[in-house]
Amino acid sequence: MARPCRVAIVGGGIAGLAAAVRLRDRAPAGTEVTVYEQSGRLGGKLRTGELAGGPVEFGAESFLMRDPAGGESRAVALVRRLGLADRIVHPSVGQAALVVDGGLRPIPGGTLVGVPGDLAKVATVARPAADADTDDGRPLLAPDADVPVGALVRERFGDEVVDRLVDPMLGGVYAGRADDLSLVTTMPALARAARVEHTLVGAVRAAQAAAPRTPGAPVFGTLAGGLSTLVEAAATASGATIRQDAAVREVHRTATGWRLTVGPTREPEYVDVDAVVLAVPARPAARLLAGPASEVAAAVGGLDYASVALVTMALPEPELPELSGFLVPATEGLLIKAATFFTTKWGHLRRADGLALVRASVGRYGDETSLQLTDDDLVATVHRELSKVLGAPLPAPVARHVQRWGGALPQYAPGHLGRIAAARAVLRAAHPRLALAGAGYDGVGIPVCVRSGETAAEEIITALGGSS
After folding, report:
1. Alpha-carbon distance 110 to 123, whole Å?
2. What is the C-alpha separation between 386 and 394, in angstroms, rounded?
3. Residue 147 backbone phi and psi in degrees, to 5
4. Phi/psi at 105 (nearest 5 deg)?
């Protein structure tokens, strides 16, 4: 009787766990899956903690409800698969603001990650360049081209639209700069439209029309009880063996599959498997690939990352605006780049005792010296800057938490997706039972990471001989 196939998943974030669930559902019967997580905690950037007696997210706080094609997102599909659909909740306050000239102004509607399809609608926060978005008789973007988001928008709409709208919106997601980030990776719908349309306004409108939003339909969701419940449910449903505090230090090809070197140098453990999913950030993946696939290692290892800190405070009965939060353009000169009023935004988190949970994000790519501050100094600076933006002193926090995420957010330079596609093509040809998954390759956000993990699992299933 043939022995069961053995699959190792290196990385216990949501991409790795989604891969494990998909393998459980679709791999040949009897397939044995083991998840190796070098830390003592599963979930990666999904981490629900507690502050002042209530739950709070110390990492990602929500997921998109819809897929860019119009259906439900992969995150929602996974939530349903895990039997958690009845826990989905949506923001009770959706309006956010921008800090402009020291004050709060509502973020205008009708934009695509800050890029307007109607210039008049953004006039309250930025002055678009006059008559720059002209029809030159050809598409904005060549068929295989990629450009920095900032370069395209500056050329067509001017600096203020980038600095006051697009840059803070991208910064809120990637902690990066619009002038550095790939259009194709961060705004794929706009990139597709730009290969056809001759003006940026036309491209934004075409992208929006290609994925119409149902009026009143929620854009974001989270889970009552916290996103760690998604992590726990995925780990359980996968049926995988979970190995925490188990660092995979080397991956080598064998005659029949792969050999993993696990654990400390002095007491290594050697594990033989048939297939491997590397669901770790690009640089750790590159180190593991250096021996068996040096060309792929070089392609993925050049990806840079930004570090951030999330400062959460519990404030007794503060006077907060009826907003979900605000974004801060770098031009405002503040340490904080975004703030979320958790107990305003999420109705299920509101407390009878009047305590408010407020979280601020600190750290921009290329300007991360602020992260060298101590926790106490970070909290003091965030408290002072929040008070300044809101125009009144906030009460002293009764509890606070600082979560530092070192090397957390990928910085996708133009051409990123092409480089990753080429690297994966090499892997498929030379090592079909080795697959990459995660934000370092396919994009940030829970739905994208879930899809990335599931796609990697499908590749492994195909290489192992198909579905059960």
Report:
1. 12
2. 8
3. -140, 160
4. -130, 135
If phi > 0 it is left, if psi is from -120 to 50 it is alpha, else beta; for residue 299 that is: alpha
E strand intervals along 189-303: 220-223, 241-244, 248-253, 258-262, 269-273, 275-278
pTM of the predicted structure, to 2 decimals:
0.95
Residue-level pLDDT, tens digit, the chain, 468 residues: 357 899 999 999 999 999 999 999 999 889 999 999 999 999 999 999 999 999 999 999 999 999 887 789 999 999 999 999 999 999 999 899 999 999 999 999 989 999 999 999 999 999 999 789 999 999 999 999 999 999 999 999 999 999 999 999 999 999 999 999 999 999 999 999 999 999 999 999 999 998 877 777 899 999 999 999 999 999 999 999 999 999 999 999 999 999 999 999 899 999 999 999 999 999 999 999 999 999 999 999 999 999 999 999 999 999 999 999 999 999 999 999 999 999 999 999 999 999 999 999 999 998 888 899 999 999 999 999 999 999 999 999 999 999 999 999 999 999 999 999 999 999 999 999 999 999 999 999 999 999 999 999 999 999 998 754
Identify the H or E element spanning 216: none
**What is the token pair recorded at 357?**
């949970």
Torsion 202-206-209-213 (CA) sign: negative
- Specify whether the CB–CB gap between 442 and 448 falls below 8 A: yes
